[in-house]
């Protein structure tokens, strides 16, 4: 273990979604901004409670679908009309109705890739190492425990005040979380 | 709503749900019956490899194909498999958008079923090619021949539809599994499992912000998959409907094929769900209510299929086209009449059993019925493909065709490969979404005690 550790934040564990939601609200009202919650299933409204507002996933999906559609149609138009015009059974070179199916499929494909990759990239995944994994009993965050972390980077951060505020939220446990300095 | 049976039996908490589902993967030994099943299907999968190898060495002549009947078994099997592959996305995506909570315990394995079935469907057109090594010519890429695919051909649409469907289904399946893989990573005790599940979980830590983006992305994927699933089987139907052959050339094909896909897909989902809940003791989560509801969906889809059969007969008469009329008469009374009547008995007559609640809620009966319907749907594709082609417009074009042992070996081999993959899946990955089950537990606690805990089995 290197001795270069510094405080990452203070973590509290709760046993219900309602408790972590109430605690997050209390900290937000007290003016804290750098906090994150970890839950075993999506808790409605928790992301908003810890100050998350811009969800850019829908825009990424829309752009992906439009790019897919344009690419699909463009590919067909270019190949059938410009690059290799060929009369097949007297059909028009630009057969718009027949081109729609591939256009649609590619719109869906690119939209779906946008949703998946957008989710990963915006969430910063894959990220195998994260300080929060060192929190006590954090393996329960994927089972039945709810965690709230107030990061030391918060401008209002003060160990004693955070500890006092946490104790009013009736958590199961509160612990200090250190982060190791990367060499 | 309140009078309905619960979606979970017994008193369940976040921990019990997680424990029960993950312990089938991490703690319990492989049940012996699973080994026997795996051995049988693995043997069949080896038969598939043998059949395909022989096919590649000898050429498509080993199949029962001739010139009026150029399509034969490979295309029958493609359509059958892609149909089976439709229920997974229906269950996952459409029921998610409709907020049907009963999808939660059955969506994961149904999605796996979709991916494996769609993979089988994707193989058969390649096996049917005279020169399978040129299959990649379907992909549009600038090549030295200076050629492009023919965009007006349904076969190209088919390639794009199936490839997109496979990709999107796989994304949907994997994305839905990320939180569960994190749970397995956290619960696994041996370092190998920890490492593998850990790598697959991509470092998921359940951050509220991550969950928020995740849910939006998941919902949008569902929204994209819904029109996609309808488009895929419609495009497969266009492979037939665009041809001017009597028996193929029909506007009812796309909706009728989609309904048939739901019918066979739900049948296969039941064929898998019923043994699964017995072997892994998942009847707390896949309850009789689930089976009952799936039976009802099957009944509705089956009625649409039956309507399709009636309309086909009616249009043959009403069109006034003598070739079309003859095709229909030949279908019912010609050399393949047995297959036609077998199809009607399996799909229409046996399907009516689903009107009875007793049938829908007795797992053994429902299991055998689901197999009958799977067979019936295969017969439907046989009837459509073979009887439409074998007697064309002029008697000089007529010929009959009979299947060879290689046809059957490859068909049953593909079934073996499909179930082998399913067996591997149920042993290595969570068959029920634990994160969504926890969400369901949370909702039920919120909506009050009345909704759960009665433990009664009446659906």
Q: Remind me, CATH topology of the largest domain in chain A? A: Alpha-Beta Plaits
Number of helices of chain B: 16
Shape of chain B: globular
Strand content of chain B: under 5%
Q: Total domains of chain A, how many?
A: 2
Low-confidence stretches of chain A: none
Query: What portion of residues of chain A belong to β-strands?
Result: 15-25%
Q: Which class of secondary structure composition applies to the elements of chain B?
A: mainly alpha
**Which oligomerization state do the chains in this entry correspond to?**
heterodimer
- DSSP strand count of chain B: 0
Considering DSSP H and I runs of 4 or more, what fraction of the residues of chain A is helical? 40-55%
Q: What's the overall geometry of chain A?
A: elongated
**Alpha carbon gap, first and last residue of chain B:** 12 Å
What is the CATH topology classification name of chain B? Formate dehydrogenase/DMSO reductase fold
Helix and strand sequence of chain B: HHHHHHHHHHHHHHHH
Neighbour order of strands in the largest sheet of chain A: 2-3-1-4
pLDDT average of chain B, as an integer?
87
Please give the radius of gyration of chain B in angstroms.
23 Å
Radius of gyration of chain A: 25 Å
Distance between the termini of chain A: 12 Å
């Amino acid at each position: 273990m290197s001795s270069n550790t510094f405080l990452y934040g203070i973590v509290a564990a709760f046993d219900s979604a309602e408790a972590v939601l109430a605690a997050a609200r209390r900290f937000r009202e007290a003016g804290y901004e750098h906090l994150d919650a970890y839950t075993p299933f999506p808790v409605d409204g928790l992301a908003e409670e810890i100050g998350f507002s811009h969800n850019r996933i829908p825009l990424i999906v829309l752009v992906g679908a439009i790019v897919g559609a344009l690419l699909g149609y463009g590919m067909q138009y270019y190949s059938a009309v410009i690059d290799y015009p060929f009369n097949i059974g007297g059909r028009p070179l630009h057969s718009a109705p027949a081109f729609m199916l591939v256009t649609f499929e590619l719109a869906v494909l690119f939209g779906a890739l946008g949703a998946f990759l957008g989710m990963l990239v915006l969430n910063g995944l894959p990220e195998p190492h994260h300080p929060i994994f060192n929190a006590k009993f954090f393996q329960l965050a994927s089972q039945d425990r709810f965690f709230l972390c107030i990061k030391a980077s918060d401008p209002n951060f003060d160990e004693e005040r955070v500890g006092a505020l946490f104790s009013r939220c009736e958590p199961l446990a509160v612990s200090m979380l250190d982060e190791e300095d990367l060499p | 709503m309140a009078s309905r049976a619960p979606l979970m039996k017994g008193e369940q908490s976040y921990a019990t749900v997680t424990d029960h589902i993950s312990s089938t993967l991490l703690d319990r030994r492989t049940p012996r019956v699973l080994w026997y099943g795996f051995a049988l299907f693995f043997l069949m999968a080896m038969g598939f490899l043998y059949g395909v190898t022989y096919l590649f060495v000898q050429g498509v002549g080993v199949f029962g194909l001739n010139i009026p009947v150029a399509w034969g078994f490979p295309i029958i099997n493609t359509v059958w498999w892609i149909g089976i592959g439709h229920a997974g996305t229906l269950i996952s995506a459409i029921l998610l958008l409709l907020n049907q909570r009963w999808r939660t315990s059955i969506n994961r394995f149904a999605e796996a079923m979709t991916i494996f079935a769609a993979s089988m469907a994707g193989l058969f057109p390649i096996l049917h090619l005279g020169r399978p090594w040129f299959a990649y010519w379907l992909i549009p890429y600038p090549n030295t021949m200076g050629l492009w695919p023919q965009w007006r051909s349904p076969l190209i649409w088919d390639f794009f539809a199936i490839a997109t469907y496979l990709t999107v289904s796989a994304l949907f399946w994997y994305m839905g599994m990320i939180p569960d893989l994190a749970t397995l990573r956290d619960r696994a005790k041996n370092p190998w499992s920890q490492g593998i599940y850990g790598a697959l979980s991509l470092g998921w830590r359940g951050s509220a912000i991550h969950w928020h983006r995740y849910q939006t992305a998941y919902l949008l994927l569902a929204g994209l998959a819904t029109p996609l699933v309808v488009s895929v089987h419609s495009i497969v139907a266009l492979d037939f409907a665009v041809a001017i052959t009597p028996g193929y050339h029909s506007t009812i094909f796309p909706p009728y094929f989609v309904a048939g896909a739901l019918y066979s897909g739900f049948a296969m989902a039941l064929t898998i769900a019923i043994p699964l809940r017995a072997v892994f003791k998942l009847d707390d989560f896949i309850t009789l209510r689930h089976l009952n509801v799936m039976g009802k969906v099957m009944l509705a889809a089956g009625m649409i299929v039956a309507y399709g059969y009636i309309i086909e007969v009616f249009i043959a008469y009403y069109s006034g086209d003598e070739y079309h009329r003859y095709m229909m008469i030949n279908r019912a009374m010609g050399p393949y009449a047995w297959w036609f009547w077998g199809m009607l008995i399996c799909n229409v007559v046996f399907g009516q059993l689903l009107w009875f609640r007793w049938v829908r809620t007795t797992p053994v009966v429902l299991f055998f019925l689901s197999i009958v319907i799977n067979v019936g749907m295969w017969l439907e594709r046989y009837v459509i493909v073979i009887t439409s082609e074998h007697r064309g417009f002029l008697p000089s074009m007529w010929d009959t065709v009979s299947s060879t042992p290689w046809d059957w070996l490859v068909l049953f081999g593909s079934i073996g490969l499909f179930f082998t993959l399913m067996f591997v899946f149920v042993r290595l990955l969570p068959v029920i979404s634990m994160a969504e089950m926890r969400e369901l537990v949370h909702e039920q606690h919120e909506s009050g005690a009345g909704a759960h805990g009665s433990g009664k089995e009446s659906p």
